[in-house]
Write a structure and sequence with these properties.
- With about 325 residues, the protein is α+β, with helices and mostly antiparallel strands.
- The chain is built from eight helices and 18 strands.
- A five-stranded antiparallel beta sheet has the order 16-15-14-17-18. Strands 2-1-6-7 form a four-stranded parallel beta sheet, covered by helices on one side.
- The longest helix has 21 residues.
- It is globular, with a radius of gyration of 22 Å.
- It comes from Chryseobacterium candidae.
Length: about 325
């Protein structure tokens, strides 16, 4: 029986269970590695001796051999080393966490099996600049964009395009009094020009503001494309960034079809990155122009999966992992 290793954490959502269910229907075994209980509860070992590489994962319940897995799903790696800080001398904590991350990511990268996601892939896809350049090269339409820490360049861009939004390139959050405040996309007008001097300390991404007929979230798994649309303008809070009112809009997304040329270019985008999963954000203008905004290597899909009959996105993920559907070859030694 083929073994599928899922990298996640104990607080992940129910999508893990749905994918696991479909993997088991494909007669494959699931091994779950919750990284937040590594290293205090889970133990990972890789040994080379007598001409053979062997890897083991020991959980409180059992011991798994990992060198013979057939595929790995790098779903999430949140809260690695949770609880460790309270268990050891603080002067060793930073160095220990460095070794922990290096060991984990080194193992994930070196597994000689098909991988749906990898730390290195996530790091590469963190570059919004590369995404936009590739999308533009493929013929996708993108908004006018300025990435800078130069206040003067930002001011010139804003004055030229008038309607401009500012966004961070990462999951940027400000922590104050123990409270996380996520920085969403915001409109920047001429009245904000004097506030741009702070760009010297932290670059930002500015884009021409595209008027929205609808917003799209497109989840691609292998060659399967799941496109959903929403009229984000129905909510005052969601007009600039639908995530600000995401909870209230969660069941208002509708399945839609993409123009054939747009779908083809998005599949080509995944070919360029050699990945089998991507959550893509696009905007459709009132003139029916399709604007590529970004691709997320590990973007969430569970709320859209629930809107399909039988959780089809989960099924596609399971089929790709179990080699029951077309997939891009990314094995280390292939």
């Amino acid at each position: 029986m083929n073994k599928i290793l899922i990298i996640t954490h104990t607080a992940d959502n129910f999508s893990i269970e749905k994918v696991t269910e479909y993997i088991e229907k494909n007669n494959c075994e699931v091994i779950r590695f919750d990284v937040d209980v590594y290293p205090l509860q889970n133990k990972l070992s890789t040994i080379f001796q007598d001409g053979e590489w062997i890897s083991y994962l020991e959980t409180p319940e059992t011991k798994h051999r990992l060198d013979d897995i057939s595929a790995i799903w790098y779903r999430r790696a949140y809260n690695i080393g949770k609880g460790l800080k309270e268990e050891m001398d603080s002067k060793f904590y930073g160095a220990a966490m460095g070794e922990i991350r290096n060991t984990l990511f080194g193992f994930f990268e070196s597994v000689d099996a098909y991988s749906l996601g990898k730390p290195s892939i996530y790091r590469r896809l963190d570059s919004k600049e590369e995404q936009l350049k590739i999308a533009d090269k493929l013929g996708l339409t993108i908004p006018a964009t300025c990435l800078t820490n130069n206040p003067d360049e930002a001011r010139k861009f804003i004055l030229k395009h008038q309607n401009v939004v500012a966004k961070m390139q990462t999951g940027f959050a400000i922590y104050e009094n123990g409270v996380e405040n996520v920085v969403f996309t915001n409109v920047v007008g001429e009245d904000k020009l004097e506030e741009l001097d702070s760009l010297l300390y932290c670059p930002m991404q500015f884009q021409q503001m595209i008027q929205k007929k609808k917003e799209l979230r497109i989840t691609i798994v292998g060659r399967d494309v799941y496109a959903f649309e929403i009229d984000s303008q129905q909510s005052e809070d969601a007009k600039v960034d639908w995530r600000k009112d995401g909870v209230n809009l969660i069941d208002k997304w509708n399945r839609t079809e993409l123009p054939a040329d747009v779908e083809s270019k998005l599949l080509e985008l995944l070919d360029m990155y050699n990945v089998d999963y991507g959550a893509i954000d696009m905007i459709v203008s009132p003139e029916d122009e399709y604007y590529f905004i970004e691709i997320n290597a590990a973007g969430e899909f569970f709320w859209l999966d629930n809107l399909t009959e039988g959780n089809l996105i989960s099924k596609s993920i399971a089929d790709v992992l179990c080699d029951k559907a077309p997939r891009r070859n990314n094995e280390v030694m292939a």
